[in-house]
């Protein structure tokens, strides 16, 4: 993933709603400058559309200039991204912000472990996360034969 590869995830119970939470998701490193554009192309969306991200909860303050209470377990708010992070992880932010989801180990041990592994390679346990669906209005992929 650090080399710009995409990871498609189909595991466990399917999420309800339009946001990816790690069970039906497309994951990619935000360090690749073209990652957001590539994810949007794959999803059939305009290149400029924002993509959400997930980060290990204890690293929220390293990415965002918002107060700690702004950290959210669901990607419901646009969070300001620190300028130095925007340079290091160019696909993380859109117009200086990101729909950022924070994650603790007990919420999803598998995804948390993946974030920690990515963090060892990149210095930041964060990934872009998009829903695994063919188009914005299609249902999420629920089985490997759906694609």
Automatic annotation (TrEMBL):
Q: Where are the transmembrane segments?
A: none
The family database entries (Pfam families) matched by this protein are listed as: Carbam_trans_C
Protein name according to UniProt: Carbamoyltransferase C-terminal domain-containing protein
Task: Describe the location of the Carbamoyltransferase C-terminal domain by residue ranges.
Answer: 2-133
Xref: InterPro entries: Carbam_trans_C, Carbam_trans_C_sf, NodU/CmcH_Carbamoyltrnsfr
């Amino acid at each position: 993933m650090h080399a710009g590869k995409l990871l498609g995830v189909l595991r466990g119970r399917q999420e309800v709603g339009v946001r990816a939470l790690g069970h039906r998701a497309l994951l990619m490193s935000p360090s690749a400058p073209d990652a957001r554009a590539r994810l949007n192309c794959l999803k059939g969306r305009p290149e400029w559309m924002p993509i959400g991200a997930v980060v290990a909860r204890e690293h929220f303050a390293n990415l965002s200039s918002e107060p700690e209470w702004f950290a959210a377990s669901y990607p419901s708010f646009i969070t300001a991204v620190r300028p130095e992070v925007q340079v290091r992880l160019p696909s993380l932010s859109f117009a200086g912000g990101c729909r950022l989801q924070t994650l603790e180990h007990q919420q999803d041990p598998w995804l948390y472990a993946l974030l920690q592994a990515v963090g060892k390679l990149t210095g930041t346990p964060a990934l872009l996360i998009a829903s695994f669906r063919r188009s914005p209005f299609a249902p999420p992929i629920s089985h490997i034969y759906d694609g």
